[in-house]
Amino acid sequence: xxxxxxxxxxxxxxxxxxxxxxPHLREEIPSGAVRRDPSKSTNxxxxxxxxxxETEPQEPxxxxxxxxxKAFWLQDCVLSLxxxxxxxxxxxxxxxxxxxxxxxxxxxxxxEMQFAVGWSGSxxxxxxxxxxxxxxxPLASQKRSSTGRPDWTCIVVGFTSGYxxxxxxxxxxxxxxxxxxxxxxxxxxxxxxxxRHPGVTEQNEExxxxxxxxxxTIDGFSLFxxxxxxxxxxxxxxxxxxxxIQPPPLAYKKWGLQDIDTIIDHASVGIMTLxxxxxxxxxxxxxxxxATIKNSPPAMxxxxxVGSNPFTGFFYALEGSTQPLLSHVALAVASKLTSALFNAxxxxxxxxxxxxxxxxxxxxPKVEPATPLAVRFGLPDSRRHGESICLSPxxxxxxxxxxFGRVILLDIARGIAIRMWK
Length: 422
What we know:
The protein is an alpha+beta fold and about 425 residues long. Helices cover about 20% and strands about 35% of the residues. Strand 7 (about 150-160) and strand 8 (about 165) form a beta hairpin.
């Protein structure tokens, strides 16, 4: 059986994106090029054919390193492509470039789809923070006349400061949340799917954020409502000239992953329910002979991590064991109101100082503690370090890659490795 790969789009302004993200590569002369002296003649008869024989090979220096960086500059960037192929993000350190498809005529006169730069700028707000992860999430339209295409695409960006910020396609900041003070390692999104297989539980939409020792999950419905409200407030603020935007609170859960050394990647499998036999087996392994077993198996959220010690870890969080946390928007509003009254009173009395204003502005929001979640079991291998994990569409299998160049197929329900490819 043969198949063909059809080109639907290509990139045109990659050099513009590279020059913006890597300014030191913009004015660099390619290695091997000869600088001409403007005082000498440019006639080929005066150049002398013997100049080729007199040239001695030079030892590779710093120019080769710059040449390698110039050729593989995308390896040093954070990339994210929207599932609908209508937006791509290329970010490095504090800068980012948003590429959008546009119809253009090629040299042959054909109308082709090309990715062009739609927006470029700096995303950092805190001093010294850099982009560590990016994710493009297309949001569906709620209009009845919609043709099924997304209404707009939200760009989620994680930073080394722990902040997670949400932007529009034009680079407008909609929402910023400090969920943990550690750097953001990875962002993943799970969309709603109708159960197509027997025994598969209906999965809700969810955004998962991975930190070095914690994982935060944001409910998709709460996130969608917050982003829609923030987008409407931004549009009204742009029309009226008012910059005061009060985002609604976000409902999220924060788990502190324990009994594992390092985490590189993760997968949120979703809500699952054990069979009665698996329920009794799990209760016996955890509680022993005196374990109490409920009449109905509890629903659990399953998370799988890859890293080291263990190479693959399986976590199970019981539904209802912890209440969803809310971002402290009301507290932020109250603190702003208190600081405004305090500044007004200080101005009336004449003893307001600039240091107090800077301290109020630099005050970070409160970070909620994580709920401890111990690893239930895993695949221990002291020499093997996991690098990435990918779930199957039915959430029953997963493929894991390691630093040895192997691909391991996992059975998620049984927690065992089925096959390994080299």
